[in-house]
Amino acid sequence: MTFNLHIVHLYPREMNIYGDTGNRLILQKRMEWRNINVRISLVGMGDEVPLDSDIILGGGAQDAMQLAVEKDLKQKMKSLRRLSDDGVVMLMVCGMYQLFGQSFITGSHRRIEGLGILPVETCAGKTRFIGNTVYQTKWGTVVGYENHSGLTQLDDSAVAFGTVIKGAGNNGTDGTEGCIKNNVFGTYSHGPVLSKSPAFADELIRLALARRYDNDNTSLAPLDDRMELRAADVAKLRSR
Ligand code: GLN
User: Which residue in 9, 94, 123, 148 is the catalytic one?
Assistant: First the structure.
């Protein structure tokens, strides 16, 4: 049987710092190595979000870029909400994570209405959190890199993506990192995060296949991840 998955990269030009595009390349490679056919769509300002998306990726950027995409994102709100309700796998990093929440108040006190897909709220704080990060998640240790001043609070109903071992995570105080709802993952981890977190990368692929082919028992052939895990070990030991 042939498997096909469609990866959609949201705002690859506008929202893309600290290697976030790498997440797309990593997923593509990990699929190709298993003979899964991959289609890639780059979705920018004015483009429609494909309704047959299997995995949607979004990256980070500073407040100014978040303001620049605000209006366009509103136009994509209906389809993104529908796709998230429908279990489409999404990975939203930092700036896009904030915009997937209820709202984000920028450093210049502008309120950006979020998509309301993740039950979180963010407000710019006075401290900038910068450096390598390590989080414990259901999918093993996730190693990334953060650079944000936004402080994100989870609503009472929210499920965090992980707990902080090293770094600030959502807000530097409650020990939570990121948020998950349905198959939508929001995280502060740049890096690109999937380069040093292969088990998490595979979980995204597995979830997308399980949904597309309606098979909860989907499993993936193992890959040789020694290099990725070694890179993760090095990053874990680096000072912030
Ligand atoms: N503007 C956001 C912040 O500084 C997002 C930064 C980012 O995506 N790295 O909190």
Answer: 94
Its pTM stands at 0.98
Cα of 60 to ligand 1 centre, how many Å?
A: 6
Q: Could you tell me which residues are beta bridge partners of residue 163?
A: 136, 176
**Closest to 82 (Cα-Cα) out of 114, 116, 57, 121:** 116
101 lines ligand 1 (CB under 6 A): no
Annotation marks residue 109 as catalytic: no
Q: Is the CB of 95 under 6 A from ligand 1?
A: yes
| Angle value at C-alpha 82, between 79 and 115, nearest 5 degrees | 70
Provide the residue-wise pLDDT of the chain in tens; the chain has 240 residues. Answer: 899 999 999 999 999 999 999 999 999 999 999 999 999 999 999 999 999 999 999 999 999 999 999 999 999 999 999 999 999 999 999 999 999 999 999 999 999 999 999 999 999 999 999 999 999 999 999 999 999 999 999 999 999 999 999 999 999 999 999 999 999 999 999 999 999 999 999 999 999 999 999 998 989 999 999 999 999 999 999 988
Closest listed residue to residue 166, CA positions, set 142, 133, 198: 133
Mutation test of ligand 1: which of 17, 57, 98 has the most ligand atoms closer than 8 Å to its C-beta? 98
Domains, in order of start, for the chain? 4-237 (3.40.50.880)
